[in-house]
Amino acid sequence: MAFEVTGKIVDILPLNQVSDKFRKREFVIERKEAGGSAVFVDYIKFQLVQDKCDLINESFLNEEVRLWFNLKGNKWERDGKINYFTNLDVWKIEKILAETGDQYIPGAGTFEDIPPENEELSDLPF
Predict the structure, then answer these.
(1) Closest-CA residue to 93 (of 114, 66, 116)
(2) What confidence tier does 119 reach under pLDDT thresholds 50, 70, 90?
(3) What is the pTM of this model?
(4) What is the pLDDT of residues 9-53, one digit of tens each?
(5) Alpha helix (H) residue ranges in 8-113
(6) By CB neighbour count within 10 A (0-12 exposed, 13-18 middle, 19+ buried), where does 9 fall?
(7) Which DSSP category does 15 fall into?
(8) CATH number of the domain where residue 116 is located
(9) Is-contact 55 93, C-beta < 8 A?
């Protein structure tokens, strides 16, 4: 089952090479939600695994993002003790432009990138 959430990335942990065949990278988003006159702030830790670790880097720090993730759970038992773990595995990340709320498109230009109009070309029929 896939979920979606938006928030601001407030921490990106280093890549963790768990074993020869498994790596992960964790990061934290700050999510604010208004409830009446109060604002509730949650700090939620997500993880990227294997090739998905490359979806994020330090340039995402303090950026508003939209995340798509799966909710995973594991049971671990040792010496008669049972532990349960919940993981939020991200599979897609998009930066959100603060001014317009539009999604970030890598390599896309902005209005500031449009050159000024050339007076000599203004009478062209196309």
Answers:
(1) 66
(2) low
(3) 0.71
(4) 999 999 999 999 999 999 999 999 988 889 999 999 999 999 999
(5) none
(6) buried
(7) P
(8) 2.40.50.140
(9) yes
